[in-house]
Design a protein that fits this description.
Blueprint lengths: L1 E4 L11 H11 L2 E4 L5 E4 L3 E7 L2 E6 L4 H12 L17 H16 L7 E9 L5 E2 L1 H6 L6 E9 L3 H14 L6 H14 L8 H6 L11 H14 L4 E2 L2 E2 L2 E5 H16 L29 E5 L2 E9 L17 H14 L3 E18 L5 E8 L5 H7 L10 E4 L1
Parallel strand pairs: 1-5, 13-14, 14-15, 14-16
Antiparallel strand pairs: 2-3, 4-5, 4-11, 6-8, 7-8, 9-10, 12-13
Helix pairs in contact: 2-3, 2-8, 2-9, 3-6, 3-8, 5-6, 5-8
Protein name: Restriction endonuclease
Pfam families: McrBC (PF10117)
InterPro entries: McrC
Amino acid sequence: MLTLTEHQRSSPIPLTIAQQRTLRAVFDARLEPAENGCVRVTPGARVGAAIIDDVHVVVTPKVPIRRIIHMIGVAADPFNWRPEEVDGLSASSIDDALAALFARACIRAFGRGIYRTYRTERQQLSHIKGRIDVGRYVRSPLPLPVPVVTTVHDDHTPENQILRAATAALRVLPGLSDSSRTDLSAVWKVVRDVGTHPDPLQLAHGIVWSRHNNHYRTAVRLAELVLRSRSVAVTSGAVAVAGFVLNMPSVVEEYVRVLIRARLGADETEMPASWRGRMNLDQGRRIALIPDLGMRRNGRWQFVGDVKYKVAQGSGGDPATEIGRQADLYQLLAYVTEAGLDEGTLIYAGASRGEVVHTVRATGVRLRVVALDLTAADIDHQVRTAVSTGFSMAPPSSIV
């Protein structure tokens, strides 16, 4: 097994050209030549595990695994998530911890029994059941079978199909603990007979949540994350690479968005996961702007911001005087200008905390830079106050 650490340069490693190419694709790795034909590998912001030419490659995160699982849980269900959910979870690997969390969510969802609902199904039967599909029947050259449209009450629902797909993906991962495999086996016994779907992730977008299926929400959200992480698998030449890889910037961004959405009292329509195609800098609508955070209410922008999974560029090494990278500040200024707001917030998620406000000289627009410490126990509080703290405590500055 090859163990690497996120954003950390490795010692010299002997790797084939194909393995190097796959490491770049799967883990966004940077490779440097070393002695004796070896290379030094620096993974990007992707963590997890993958099988690369029969080598089990694991990239461990710099953020504690329990904290990552906490962020994932909050993003999946911010109102019902309990911090104690991480108690007893394996801390040996991110995939094992997420598998255990997913299995627990499924078992809790099945507490009322597997979810069933009514659906319409077209069938060819030797007898009449439901109503005859007259259009298909008159075009049929034979009297039997009879094409009918029936109403079926069963467990072949989108929710269960998504859970089945995620469970099947997790069960084949190497390196899972015995407890995780036991829990996944219990889940599999419930969903194994559910019908499959060629694109379960697409099914998730069409689910309408109600009092009937809301108890499935956390499990389905976690299943979506599992399936997205499995889709990172790439093909290197003619060899398919199986892997479970989390994109840390995406995990942090969704976590921050969910907490800020709740803090502002917004819903997913007012603060969606993406503003792609909804904001442009120029009148010709050729310069697209895609803020990570944005809230529109009653046709007007109320809040705009961006999230960066990296340490802010400090002005003197003191976390309390983080000033932000120029390119990030220019990007935020573009968002604020297009939104017609007086203020924007730039959030850096790293290992230090602090806040500073820049006032743009020409317009008076305020650009807030907030550094969050992902390793701290009060990270939820840090995120919530990132959009509610005043400016009196932040060191002032001025930029053109």
